[in-house]
Every structure is written in structure tokens, then in C-alpha cells.
Amino acid sequence: MWYGAPRMNPSRKPVAGFRATKSEGGPRPAGRAKRPRPSFEELIARIATRFIALPGDRVDGEILRAQQDVCERLGLDISWLWQRPSGRPDDRLSLQMYAPPDYGVPVLEMSARDFFPWSMAKLTKGETVILSRVADIPPEGARDLEIFRHYRIRSSIRFPLAVGGGPVFGAVSFETFRKPTAWTPAITGRLGLVAQVFASALFRKHAERELRENEAHYRALYEDSLEGIFRTSPEGTVLFANPAMARMLGYDSPAEVKRSITDLANQIWAVPEERARFIQRIREEGSIRAYECRLRRKDGTPIWMSINVRPVRDPDGRIVHFDGFVEDIDERRRAVEALRESESRYRGIFEGSLDGIYRVTPDGRLLTANSAMAKILGYDSAADLLASVTDVGAQVWESQDERARLLRELKGRGEVRGYECRFRRKDGSLTWVSLTFRVFYGPGGQIVYSDGFAKDINERKRTEREIAELRLELTHLSRILTVNEISSSLAHEINQPLGAILNNAEAAQILLSQPPARQRALPEIVDDIILDARRAGDVIRKVRRVVKRGEAQVEQFGVNGLIDETLALVQNNLSLNNIAVRLDLAPDAADIRGDRVRLQQVLLNLITNALEAMREAPTRILTLRSAMDGPDRVVVSVGDSGPGVAESKRAMLFEPYYTTKKDGLGLGLAICRSIVEEHGGRIYVSDQAGPGATLSFSLKAWRDNEGLD
Amino acid sequence: MSDSDIRIWIVDDDLSFGKSLKRMLNAMGIVAEHFGSARSFLDSVPAGESGCAIVDVHMPACDGFCLLDKMRELRYAMPVIIVTGQPEGHTADQARQQGALGYLSKPFTVESLLELVRTADTKKAVPQT
Q1: Does A26 have pLDDT greater than 70?
Q2: Global ipTM
Q3: A532 CA to chain B: closest CA distance, Å?
Q4: How far apart are the first and last CA of chain B?
Q5: CB contact under 8 A, B86 and A507
Q6: pLDDT tens, position by position, A400-411
Q7: Contact A503 B85 (CB under 8 A)
Q8: Of A117, A205, A470, A556, which cross-links A56 as Cys (Cβ 3.0–4.6 Å)?
Q9: How many other C-beta atoms are found inside a 10 Å radius of the C-beta of residue A211?
């Protein structure tokens, strides 16, 4: 396909491609008419001569001049020249046109696609297009005809430009608009000759340009190459060296290399005798590739090089010089060294690690494992572990499903940290590990292998369990202590007046059986009894006040925080029992007010009940939800995936001494209810989709801190 | 020996209780005195005095056990009955260890008190002087 657009001549002056004919030819008709008219053959010869040794950048101008000469000599009006600038078929098209000075038609601005498409198609195929009358063009050439008419062209002949049967790289045309021309074989042949001359000149121009470009290309390669390029003489001097070569040898420039080095063997080779041996090998073997040797830099420091060299011989077979390039392999050698070092360092880390490290295939074959891993799993050594375990999923994981699930869940994430699970030891016992697990995928997305880093967390787990137990015990203990404290101080305060009342009553009883004279004290005794009875009443009231003030700490707080805190208390319990937690917390949940500790007890109790309910359940999902129930109530729900609560049992659920547990007292939910109701809330069983039960409590919503100190 | 020969010294910071106990004992014809603190008892009743002391454990300044120590120190011979409104296991033990004759938790009946007082009298008929 042809590209580019014909040039536009906005001035509407006589058109002539690159240069105005006027400026070049001067006042033509007058000047030329005086010269004797040469024969056309002579003209062609003269034109051909002009192109000899003509620099490429002047070829186009000379062709334009020839176009003019030919037109004038043969009485033709217009000549076009199209060419692809570099002769390559995918290049842009350029155009030049000769037309007489009085030719008043503006050059059309159009795309090359539209520029004589029919003619161009033929020309590209190497055909000559001859139209004595453009009107005779076949219907397919309608677009060409349109353009001919625009230029007022009546006859046209067009030749493809190609050399020696090569690809067409341009075209030349001659046309008339003053009168139609019958393109006789004679004139066609002559013009064909002209086209040949143009083609040769243009071809040479393109070839020259390509050569220049190639040279620049090779020069750039040579100059910018990171490899050292050299040409040396058998005598030991440097004929060429590129900047990289100079740099490698520690010289400032190629020129300095050439100047300074006169004896390669002694100046450059670390072992001077090696050069003679090297040259001997070249003589015998011809080219030598990747010869690694030690050379010396300008400052005497050694440098490892890899040399590729070939001898260049004269026609008699004598070696004129050596051409070659060298690679600095010091860097590579250092890199290899560094790699070796880092490998041994990593091996050290791998072996010395206290954490177990292993690599495993997706089907559970161990590729490698360190001795810490063997120790964690109770094997004698890493070798013992690698030999004994053929399927990690079946032999090491507590459950094969868990491993499969982990691998599945990792898809897309690739890594999990701190995954706590139990591994089976050689003796069958289970051991807690915290696992960092990384999966490596192949290009097709399949798992290639996974790396595991296992930390022994048995100690921590035991501590956690102990702490949890201790905490429970402490909670219980502190509750007992509180009750004891209250009851003993209560007892003291009440027993005093009770004792006095009893004493007084007994005194009165005795006096009543005595003579009336002794009974004068009776009214006073009764007064005292009444006083002490009141005192006892006051004591009870006082104690209740104290107890209330001491326990109820009213504050305002968010339910989501309450849920988080409480969940943290049972986290271990959850992981121990394989319970998945689903949190569904409303971000806009309002605050509640009350005794945080006691409400936490309520939530804890509900969660504990939920866990109990799921003890035998196949799937164990604990759902904690916060939500708004209208603008004024906040609801906290605890859902389980256990057997659920039968409709008929729901009413009894919160009654004291109702229990489904073997060892339960049935007080938990009753206490929860009393705490929630003390807070002005409500506790209830709500319906849920699917199996399990959901217990909820709702409390008044508080949006601000109004009225709270 | 009849009850009327017994002299009872009540030491209790709870005035109402002390007064009611004295009243009750007096109604039975028993001589009884009430002191609101260990100090006033020690100041008013000499060591050689006979009778029985009924001492409350919980008192400010010098409590029941403190008084018990002091009485032994000052060679009081009379038996001491410890009473308390706050019954705790260790109180009874401590009372016995410190040589108290007995231990009663309030409220107590006059009968239980007199039973104790009578054993004191049978055991220690003659005060050490």
C-alpha cells in the first residue's frame, strides 16, 4: 500500500515538487531555445552521466531536472515521481512533480490510498500503465479518472521503478494535457529507458542511505557495547579498542589504550607466557570462544575476562590481526561466590532455625525439612522425617481436610501467617504449632509447592489454657469473696441489734413474772426493743446501698466494643473447639448504658451456652450480631449452629433452675435475665433461618453523653 | 452456788447491747456491770475481782482479744466469755487458744450464757489471788 499525501501548493503558482522549476531553470524557453537540440539518445546519455557519483541527497533534484528536460524534449506536460524514501515497501510515499510554469491547477491534497489507486495497483505489480486517452480507463479506474480530470490530463504513461527484477520502490509518469498523445512503442521504449536511469539512481541513493544507517548502527554497537571489543596485532599492539574495553582495563579512553599498550603479553596478560600459548591455539584452532583468563588492569589489579577471538588472515593465510571481544567475568565470578555464600548462609539459617521449616508438594510429599521440624514432630532427624512421611496431610496434619481447606482458602492469597493448628507427632500425639504457610503457583495457576514455617506453641497454649482456667477460678473466687464479705459484715451489723432485742425481750419476760414493783422498767425495755428493731432495719438498708454502689458502675459504651472484648475472653475456647466466628456488627450501633462488667457476664454466658449447644454439632458457627431495633433500641444477638430451642421450651428458658445440661444448675440464663432487666432491657430467643438458636438482648440506645457524669 | 452470787462484767462498745444484757441479767437477779471499752473495764475492775467477763470481739482501740491478752498480763483470774456479732470459725478457735472460757455468737439466749457461766464457776470456784 502506498502512503503519504501529495504535496500541496498553496500559492497556486506553477508547481514543481521540491523546487520551483523557475528558480532552477531560469527563463527557460529563451535560454534553451538557443542550444542545439540534442537527440533523445544523447539526452538520455547526458542525464545518465549526471547521476554518476552523485551524492544521494542530490538525486531527487537531479531527477526533477531530468523530468523537465524529458518533458521539454518530447513535448510532454507533466511528470510525476513517486518513491518510497528508503525503498522498503512499508515506507511512506514521497512525491515530486514537474509541471510547466503556466500550469494553473493546484495540487490536490489527498491520501495516497486515493491517489490513482488503479494505476498504483498495476505499477506495484511491475506493470507499465499506458493510457493514450485517459477516458479509456476501465470502470475500476473511476477514481484515477477523476484525478486525471482534476489535473486536466488527457494522456498518461506510467512506469514502475525497480532494479534487476527486485521489488517496485516507486513510479514515474509522463502526461499531457494540451493534446492527447499516442504512446508509440518508440516513445514508450525511450521513456522506459529514462525510468531505468531514475530507478538506478534512486536505488543507489537508498542503498547508500542504508549503508550509512547500518554504519551508524554498528558504530553505536561498537561504542556503546558493554563488552570490550578489540583488534590486536600478532606483535602485541592494540589496533582498535572500544570504550568498554578501555574501561574494563582501567584506561580513560580507547586512544589511551592504543597509545599505552605496546606489549600485550607483558602489559596485559597476568601470565605473559600465556599469550603465546593462546595465539598458538588460535593458529591451530581458528576462532576461540569463552577463553577465561586473568588479565591485568592499568593499575596492575587483576581482572577475570572471558575472551572470544578470531584471526583475520591475508590472502596468503598469514594472520594480519585478531578481532575479538571480551566479557568482564569478575562480576560474574563474584556473583557466583556471593551466591555460594548466601546459599550457605541460608542453609545455616535453615538448619539452625528453631522453627520448623519444610517444603511440600500439593500431594503431600515432603521435599525438604530442617532438623527443627523433625524435632517438633518427634522424629530423630530431618532424614528420618523425610523418609517416614510420604503424605503430610495424612501423617502430619491433625485432619487431612484441614490441610485441603487451608490450601483451598489460600488460593489467590498465597500466604497465611500465624495459623494455629495441631500436628501429629511420630508417636501419634498432637502438638500445637503456629504455621506460616506460603503457596507457590505455576504459570497455569496450579500449586507447585508450599513452604511451611512451624513454631512450636505448646508452651504458649498451655499457658493460655492455664491463664484461662485461672481467670475462671478467680472470677468465681472473687464472687464468693464478695458474697462472704457482704454477708459477714451484714451479720455483724444485724446481730448486734438482734442480740439486744433478744436480751431485752428475755429481761421483759423475766420481769413480767415478778412483782409489779419491778415492772416499772418494762416501757423502757419495749422502747429499746423498738429502737433496736429499727436499727436492724436501717442496717439492712445501709448494706443494700453499699452493695449497690459497689457493684453497679454505670457507664456509656458501644456494644461492638463489648462484643469484641467478650469474644477475646473466649478466643481460646473457640479455637480449641474448632468454632468459626461470624461477626455481623452494625457500624452505626448506638451506645448503651450500664454496668459493663455485668453486661459482659451476660454476653459471656450467652456465648458459653452457644458453645455448649454446638458441642455435638457437625458445623460449628458462632454468630455475633449487633443491630439497631428502631432508633431507640440496640440489640445484641448470639447465634449458634446447634440443635436449637424447641418452641415449647422457649418460655422456660430464662426461668431459674431450668437446664438442659447434665451438670448445669440452670441459673445462668435466669441471672442474665435479671441483669438485663435491671438495665431496663429484655432478653429473648429469636427465630433464625436454618438450624441453631439465637438469643438476643436489647437495651435502650444512647446517642450522646447527656446526663452521664 | 446460786446465780445470784455470780458477778458479770460486760465489755461491749455497743451500748444498746451492753445495756440490754445487763438489764436481762439484773432481772434474773445477777449482778452485772457494763463497760463501753476495754480501758474503762480495766480501770474499774481490779485483777483480783471475782466474777465472769463477757467481752465483745469487735471494739475500737483494744478489741476483745487485746483485752484478753491484757487481762492475762495483769493476772486477772476471772473467766472470760467471748461474744461476737460476726461469727467466724477462726474467732472461736482464737478465743479458746487465748484461754477464753467460751464463745457465743450474738444473738444468744440467756440460758446458753448462764450455762457457760456456771461451768466457769464449777471449774474455777476460787479466784486466784
Answers
A1: no
A2: 0.82
A3: 8
A4: 20
A5: no
A6: 888 888 888 777
A7: no
A8: A205
A9: 11
